[in-house]
Amino acid sequence: MIASMLTSSRFERVLRLLDQERKLILDGPLSELGAIVARREVLLGELLDQERDLPEAFLAAVKARAERNSRLILASIAGARSAEAEIARIDDARNRLRTYTATGAPVDVAPTRITRDTRA
Q1: For residue 103, what are the β-bridge partners?
Q2: Nearest to 17 by CA among 34, 31, 3
Q3: DSSP per-residue string spanning the chain
Q4: Are 15 and 62 within 8 A, CB to CB?
Q5: Are 40 and 62 in contact (CB under 8 A)?
């Protein structure tokens, strides 16, 4: 009886840690994510060492929450890459001047750099 109660509380702790991971992925700070993942892995390792047959409901809940967190992390990475590309486009536009000829053809003009030594 006591052993099943302890095991049940371990199941709940694992699921709570998966929910905390989700909260960190959504709200940050991501720097704390490593510690949560390490604690979750330790708890899961202990459960696997002590239990041979984990309840199907627990395994389904772990799988669902882990997949959810995985999708959130992948979306976060995609968002960071998109932001990086947008910053690169803005930086490129800042360093380039596009104008048009009298016939309407586009021409890229390299801007001249003004330094302290060449000021009037």
Answers
A1: none
A2: 34
A3: -HHHHHHHHHHHHHHHHHHHHHHHHHHS-GGGHHHHHHHHHHHHHHHHHH-SS--HHHHHHHHHHHHHHHHHHHHHHHHHHHHHHHHHHHHHHHT-EEEE-TTS-EEEEPPPPP-GGG--
A4: yes
A5: no
Compute the radius of gyration of the chain from its Cα atoms.
27
Calculate the alpha carbon distances from 81 to 49, 75, 86 in Å: 39, 10, 9
Name, in order, each residue with C-beta under 8 angstroms of 16's C-beta and a sequence gap of 6 or more: none
Model confidence pLDDT, tens digit, residues 84-111 = 999 999 888 877 888 899 999 999 887 7
Full-model pTM: 0.71
